[in-house]
Amino acid sequence: MKPLKIFVFIMLCLTATARVGYGQDTATQQAPAANAQEAAVAAADQNAPETARPHEIVFSGKLYSPHKQTVNLDYTALVKSVKGKIGTKVKGGDVLVTFEIPLDTRMAELQNVSLVNMKNLEYQIEETQNLLNSANIKKHELETLLKKQLTSPQSLEQAQNQIDSMQKKLTMLKTSYALEKNLSQNRLDLAQARYGSNVTHTNFPKNGFVKAPMDGYILWMNADLKDDTALAGGSKLYEIGTMDPLVLRAEVHEIEAQKLREGDKASVTFDSVPGRTFVATVTTIPWAPLPSGLQQPSYYQIELTIPNGDLRLKEGLKGQVTIISGQQGNS
């Protein structure tokens, strides 16, 4: 019985070994096929165009008005009335502030636009012309006397020199007069643009005003700008800018900037405007980076345009931008 048990045990071991060997051979044959398939997928992914593989780019930026101008007070003045307030929509030429022009300023401006210099030149031209006419008459008399040998050639030559000198002076005076006439009109135009159309060469108004330089909204206003308040010359009164659309500026790392294209669409969220997502478009990608150290990576200041028809967004808000590079909207 013992030899029989030994024989059965040996046969069972041989059978198990054969099955294990068969499994190893099958796995060995299937492995190259699986590896080849994985390599093909990796190669296809590597050779796929850049636009076929979306890249999510996330960064933050701030909102700015794309067009903005500052309104200053040219000189010390007493504010009489303030019409422009923060948030007010204005048009170019609208009166924002009325103020009293200081007396010394009015006197200086009136002297600047007066016609005194031009009138003085007119008088000099007339006087010189009369002298020139008299000199020509005297020259003709000397010519007659010289023919009769009653005067010397030197007298006639001296008379001609005086005529030449007067002629040059008359030409210079006429040139100065033409220049002064143009300058006088330009000074009057400037004064009327600053102080009103009622400014003339002989009259200057007591009150002046500040006008809006462009269409837009009042974004900022001097806190000291109030009725019956004196402000120093050069004081900043207002900031006026456009609000629709706004520009979102952001500093983007060189690696991410290389993935962006003008026209890429972005979704923008603001912590100060919860629950809303805004759509923006990449409009500017500069070729030159912001200044940085030689060993530091470069950053590019890109710009995105974001609509703001309901004026919900304000300048200075910080937003989180998400861009899927290669995804462009129809424009």
Explain how this protein is built.
The strands form 3 sheets. A 6-stranded antiparallel barrel has the order 1-10-13-12-11-14. A 4-stranded antiparallel β-sheet has the order 2-9-7-4, with no helix packed on it. It is an alpha+beta fold and 331 residues long. It starts with a helix and ends with a strand. The chain has helices spanning 2-47, 103-113, 116-147, 153-195, 254-257; strands at 55-64, 68-72, 77-82, 89-90, 95-100, 207-211, 216-221, 229-231, 236-241, 246-253, 264-270, 273-284, 299-306, 318-328.
What integer value in Å does the Rg equal? 44 Å
Shape, per Cα inertia axes:
elongated
How much strand content do the residues show?
A: 25-35%
Order of helix and strand elements from N to C terminus: HEEEEEHHHEEEEEHEEEE
Number of helices: 5
Mean pLDDT: 84
What topology, given as strand order, has the largest sheet? 1-10-13-12-11-14
Biggest beta sheet attributes: 6 strands, antiparallel, barrel
Ranges where pLDDT stays below 50 over 5 or more residues in a row are 20-31, 40-45
Strands, count: 14
Helix percentage = 40-55%
Give the class from helix and strand content and strand pairing: alpha+beta
Distance between the termini: 94 Å
Oligomeric state: single chain
